[in-house]
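Submission checklist for the structure archive. All mandatory fields must be present; incomplete records are returned to the submitter.

[x] Identifier: SGNH/GDSL hydrolase family protein
[x] Organism: Pseudomonas donghuensis
[x] Residue count: 401
[x] Sequence attached
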Amino acid sequence: MRRLHNILGLALLICALPGCSPVAAVNTTARPATSAAKAPTHRVDGNLAVLAGKFKNANRAPINIIQFGDSHTAADLFSGEMRRLLQARYGDGGIGLIAATPVSGTRYEQVILKTAKRQWELVSARNQQSTQFPLGGYLSVPMAANPSVRIEAREPTAQRYRVQALYQARESSTLVLRDGRGRNQRMLAATGGQWRFGPQVGNLGLPLDLTLNSRPGTLLGGWYIQGQKNAGVIYSALGINGARLEVQDKWQAGWQDNLKTLRPDLVILAYGTNEAFDDTLDLALYQTQLRNTLKRLRQDLPRAVVLLVGPPDSIKQRKARSCAARQPQQLAQVIRIQRQAAKQANALFWDWQAYMGGQCSIAGWQASGLARGDLVHLTADGYKKSAAGLHDFLRTQLGLK
């Protein structure tokens, strides 16, 4: 009964926003390759040289990387190892954009989100039919007076951060931030029904407690956490379990403006597994969606490098006799479409399946402890190995030693 009450309250709160439709709460639920996949024969335009230069000067200015994806990204093991490798070499620029409140089935490599019960209702764009979600696809609705969130570091750190809220407010609200050194307060001005990043609060440490003194119609979409030094690599992992590329169509029109505000230097699209498992997938429509997405990214972020990460190898029909029959029906076609779309958009493409060893290679990875028993997802070691492959590929493309 309490769950039903929360859902009804959520719908009423969201419907109070201009142009909004109600949404309900969501239930979230071979042999290893020895070398990196070969580089594509085409080259991205001068953006590669620009990005290479930024890596070489990362001690003086930040490099912002944003990865969109499905469950392979939501676990932040694959992206987490990429973050670790890049930050170890080029400096820790911060944590990036994370959800505002805990998301069941999703984790962050560097931080843990905690909230008290019955303070928030989280809604995911995974399977909700609304076009009001923010960048990243998670929406947190206050369900109590002055709800709070605590952000803790997984490992002790003395690093200081600058923090901004991604929010939407019908009326002005107040955000209170407390760390071990004291208390800060900032006003979150009314946004006219749009998602916006709030004022930046600097010199904050973890753990950090954030309390929202909210008015009706205030929603949170996430926290953007940068290093105080304004240098090094910032790597945001925006993954949703079960997501496809089309999940971005549920984000509020203009979400690209929020993306541009973050000024990404590298945008990674890591979707494809869930498309591949859909036997009824309209391949022509998927191809059009992907091309349009890449075209829009090129228009909105003309100086950024765009990288498509193909889906990893997987097996759907375990008892089928041939390797081809064991594979998801659409997997080969999804990889083909991604490769072609990347070439046409002058973007990079990394073939994750090829790196693993080709078709049905995940069986070998599972036997070696690198893939899980579902023959879809990898273990922590498998994701780390894959990240090392992508890291090597990216460095090769950028000409970095």
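[x] Structure attached
Curator remark: Residues 33-91+232-401 form a domain with the Rossmann fold fold (CATH 3.40.50.1110). The mean pLDDT is 90.
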